Here is the input.
Amino acid sequence: MNVTHLVPESAQQAHKEILLSLGSENNPQQWMEFCETIDKHIPEMSTKGRMSKKEVEQSLIGKLGFDSFKSYIESDLEEGGLGWSSGGWNAYRRAWSLVKKHPYLRQLEIKSGWLNAFANQCKKADIEFPTTIEAYNEIQESKAEARENNKDAKLDEQSKRIIEQENLIENQSVELEELKQKSLITYTEQRAKIETFDQLTAQLTEKIESQAIEIAELQEKLRKKPEIKKVKVKLTRLEALRTFFFGH
Here is the structure.
């Protein structure tokens, strides 16, 4: 904006009205009010989308000291602009063209982004954009029903997975219980074998100890028994010969 440019009072008032209509995004229909205000003060932008240099100079934009609608939108508030973005305006303009073609949309609380997305969905699905509120509602109901069916399908799939997991857990629990029983039986058998071995070991130890006591007692008896003295016996000649020939 040219700071030395003198702005007519009517242009200043129109600028304030446009700025006020830009409002807040909290209101779903705020963008429609903005587009209506632009139509009122700068109709060329809504109908053509572009303006010649001469048209800009003769319009509110030129009176405010700007050389293009883009510069007017993007300039800071302190410079007399809207402090907004040309991309935002382009999205508004596309949605607004649908509203002007299908006036029933003006009564709906919808945002420009949603309306543009809906139009793209209709185009991709090769569906004619609804020309009446009844056709519009029918499409929305169909979409809602499709979402519910999809939701139910997902729930059914989730339920199926839950049941499968529960069955798997139950089978694993049975297998675990069987394994515990087998382990308990094996442990019991091994324990019984160990106890039998311990009993045999105890019995053998007891027997060995008993035999050791007996051996000790015998050794003690032998130690105390008097030594037998050797006695020489004189044999007769006849007995000696008998012994020599017969051995006894």
